[in-house]
Amino acid sequence: MGDNDIEERDPFPVEGDDEGGFQENPKRKRRRVEQLHSNVSKWMLPEELRETYLERANCCPPPIFIILISLAELGVFIYYAVWKPQKQWITLGVGIWESPLTYKPEQREEAWRFVSYMFVHAGVEHILGNLLMQLLLGIPLELVHKGFEVGMVYMAGVLAGSLASSIFDPLSALVGASGGVYALMGGYFMNAVVNFKEMRVLLGVFRILIIVLIVGTDVGFAIYRRFIVHDAAMKVSFVAHIGGGVAGMTIGYVFFTNYDKALLKDPRFWMCIVGYIAFFLFAVIFNIFLSPAPA
User: Fold this and answer.
1) What is the average per-residue pLDDT within 6-12?
2) Rounded distance, CA 7 to CA 139, Å?
3) Which of 121, 126, 145, 241 is flagged as catalytic?
4) What does the alpha-carbon distance between residue 259 and residue 45 come to, in Å, rounded to a whole number?
């Protein structure tokens, strides 16, 4: 009997054997992925949509848009901080003002600057704040809504931010990705407010308070630097924060509340699109014919 028992046992765990050690890692990994998606669904979706999301949840495609845009912004920052001569790189100086990417009112006829300014940041604090927020918020959003929706909201915020700045603060320059970041926060904020009853009370209150605290602190410092600190350097507008936030609270809200629904059949989507196009056309006309900024 003893010999037979020895012969029937496998000397080593075999891959594919349920009792072998090789099956534990894939199972553990799968459980971690499922837990990740479960947590994401609680933060991003009302209760009635979570089951649908969890049934379809996967990381294919991965959150590639927000990662690529973050790497591009970091790469441009490193370029101006390391390769371009700077007195210090904690707060960048001449290099970014002479950059062909920075939005400057006297060069607004170079239309790409209305978008490219998002790649240029004024210092370590500036870029780290933007990267941290857009990664922490953008990756979960992209896991739920995928790259197209998140990319559309982000870019709508970037463009709305520069256009709003050119109208309401036409003599100031503009750098940073705050328009896109605030668009993501605006869309998420509206989603949190509208679906407040569908969330746990403490979770809903926490989400809203965190966003209000971040936005209030950031805009407060931006206003302080803009109007109170007297610096000989070029004034940087804070209006892009507001423009991006408004874009997020309209277009972003529609995109982020239409999970598992036909977006093109939602009248709110077309209202937001028409409103955005009307704002865009007005901003173009203003910059061509009415802006007090130097030509």
Assistant:
1) 45
2) 52
3) 241
4) 8
With 0.85 as the threshold, say if the pTM is over it. no
- Three-state secondary structure of the chain: CHHHHHHHCCCCCCCCCCCCHHHHHHHHHHHHHHHHHHHHHHHHCCHHHHHHHHHHCCCCCCCHHHHHHHHHHHHHHHHHHHHCCCCCCCECCHHHHCCCCCECHHHCCCCCHHHHHHHCCCEHHHHHHHHHHHHHHHHHHHHHHHHHHHHHHHHHHHHHHHHHHHHHCCCCEECCCHHHHHHHHHHHHHHHHHCHHHCCHHHHHHHHHHHHHHHHHHHHHHHHHHHHCCCCCCCECCHHHHHHHHHHHHHHHHHHCCCCCCHHHCHHHHHHHHHHHHHHHHHHHHHHHHCCCCC
For the stretch 142-170, pLDDT in tens is 888 888 889 999 999 999 999 999 999 99
Catalytic residue from among 70, 166, 178, 237: 178
Q: Which residues touch 150 (CB under 8 Å, ≥6 apart)?
A: 63, 65, 66, 138, 141, 142, 184
Residue with tokens 């534990």: 24
Is the four-CA dihedral 151, 156, 159, 162 of positive or negative sign?
A: negative
Cis omega (within 30 of 0) for bond into 105 = no
Nearest residue to 239 (alpha-carbon basis) of 124, 117, 81: 117
Take residue 165 and report the two structure tokens written for it: 């700045």
Instruction: Please say if 70 is a catalytic residue.
Output: no
Asked whether the predicted pLDDT for residue 232 surpasses 50, the reply is no
CA 83 centroid distance within chain: 27
pLDDT of the residue at 180: 96
Q: Which pLDDT does position 131 carry in this prediction?
A: 95
